Amino acid sequence: MSTTLTSLRRSYNEHKGSLYFWDWDERRGYTIEQDQLVEDFESITNDSDEKIIQVTIYKTPLSTWQLTQAVLYHAFVVLETENWYYSLEISEKCVTMQRSKSKEDVRDSYPRERLRNVLRGDTPERIRRAKGKKTMSEVMKYIVDNEILDRNYEVLVDDGQNCQTFANSIFRHFTKL
């Protein structure tokens, strides 16, 4: 087990300090460094001031053999704006954001993959949903201001973050609760 955890940390640490942005409509990906996140996001999307209408947290099993998702699961968030759907998640690979006109793209798929792979399952289940607040530009500023891209990835949270803590922090900060 410790070999697996070490391998996961190494994979994440290779991409630490950056966000991978995948645009489904353009079928193109970008790696954005934290110090350029706000500016590059605005340049790539041209819609950074879009208001967030709704925020939903989804979960998927960590493996195909998992019997329950009561405690152990992969969590990610989907942000709906007037024109786009965005997903935002942290995994053993990196922090990833996707954008599409189709909610199914960002909810059911991972960049360049038809369905979410085994570590994410293939049938996302909604955990929570609430009305959104703020803008996509403010999401980027939140990520930079809280140094999210520089935090350690930890399967079991210690001094870092994992997919569940990350999704919940985005949900709390960008919903009207």
Describe the structure.
The chain is of the alpha+beta class. The protein has one domain (2-173). It has helices at residues 2-15, 37-45, 103-108, 136-145, 163-173; strands at 18-23, 28-33, 52-60, 74-81, 85-90, 95-100, 125-131. The chain has a 7-stranded mixed sheet. Strand 5 (85-90) and strand 6 form a beta hairpin. The longest helix is centred in the first third of the chain and has 14 residues, at 2-15. The radius of gyration is 15 Å and the shape is globular. The termini are far apart. The model is unreliable at 1-9 (pLDDT under 50).
Taking Cα atoms only, what radius of gyration do you get, to the nearest Å? Answer: 15 Å
Class of secondary structure makeup: alpha+beta
- The arrangement of helices and strands along the chain is HEEHEEEEHEHH
Task: Tell me the number of structural domains.
Answer: 1
Measured by DSSP, the beta-strand proportion falls in 25-35%
Biggest sheet layout: 7 strands, mixed
